[in-house]
Here is the input.
Amino acid sequence: MSFLIGMMPPLLQGFSITLQLIVCAIPIGLVIGVMVAVGRVYGGIALSPLAWGYQLLFRGTPLLLQLFIIYYGLPHCGIVLSPFVSAIIAFGLCSGAYHSEYFRGAILSIPDGQMNAARALGMSKGQSVFSVIFPQMLRKAIPGCTNEIVYLIKYSSLAYIVTLVDLTGQGRLIGYATFRFFEVFLIVGLIYLGMVTIVLRLLTTVEAKVRIPGL
Amino acid sequence: MDSSQIIALIGRSLPALFQGAGITVLLMGACLGVGVLCGIPLALVHVYGGYWSRSAAGIYDRVFRGFPALVLLFLFYFGLGNISGLSVSPFVAVVLALGLRSAAYQAQIYRGGMLAVAEGQMDAARSLGMTKPQAICFAILPQALYFSLPGLANEYSILLKDTALAFTVGVVELFTKGKFIAVQTRATLPIYLTVGALYLLLTYAGIFCFWMTERLAHIPGLGWRSRDTER
Here is the structure.
């Protein structure tokens, strides 16, 4: 029991780093996701292949490798980033690629007629996308994005590999100090499980709250 | 370092990287195998189990889908030896951690497949004199597995990329090989980009294989093709 209480302060410290990582990476991922999805659907010949290539690259390679390229590879061309910033960028870019597929699916599920109707009412293409397509797309994409955010929370544990002492990193330090790896990682895992459960509850509530009746 | 040197360097490191890719494929195959072997029974429990077995499967599901892959890997590599006194080899730890994790995800895929089989099929099989296990084995499962193929292709691509985590416990697979070479030659960016290209190749080659399997295993009158022919 005293072992449990003793390891709480460092774990809490790691937890706060993990939380900061997640809170910073989620909006980046969502913004990139929307941009890439819009690029793929409405981008034409110029942007659409670019967005497709982005998805292909970031969904086809391991996140660990992307993190390594940003943290250890970019200094090769003179760009040196701190571990925290590299982790946020890697998580944001990667989850953006996955988010974009959910957003794209949501856009494609909206009937073509809506775009035509908006255009016929005198809206420009940009206006119709913003005021007609977006509000529906964002709502329809919530279940998929919830999934992706849950993945992001769990994959934030990779940050420890680029020397950031997050929840997993603290768990490892405690493990090495006490040699009670099993108990430590069980607790660490349960904390992640708790985070995931809370976020799932929260986003399910949001989904129900913003639902458009009859849609 | 100019570009011709970099290209020569990549050329020289390719054999080692291919060797690493072999280990990655081996790891992935073992994990996918564990996932299939444990995932199908788990899905059966989810769908046909009683109250207690379903609750147990639910807890398994919660833990293996709620814990990060890295934490599970450390639990199996460091933790298992810790409580049992066994020394777990890195390879076995990765296969157990990622395989059992994949089983939890695969169980959901198979469950979806089973639920997609029309309910009347069970009744029809029972009315033909089959026992319930027979009906599950010969009527429900073959169709459910076919319906699961697209989800399984997805799981494959996730699993393949997760095997890169094996680097943290010292299995020398594609990513680890790449890291060795990158550290030795100090040409980090070109080497990591090559490693990325190899992962990309493996991911999409595998997805193509699943797609081919789906076409070959197609059951006449079932799924998307029949809808096309009906039209």
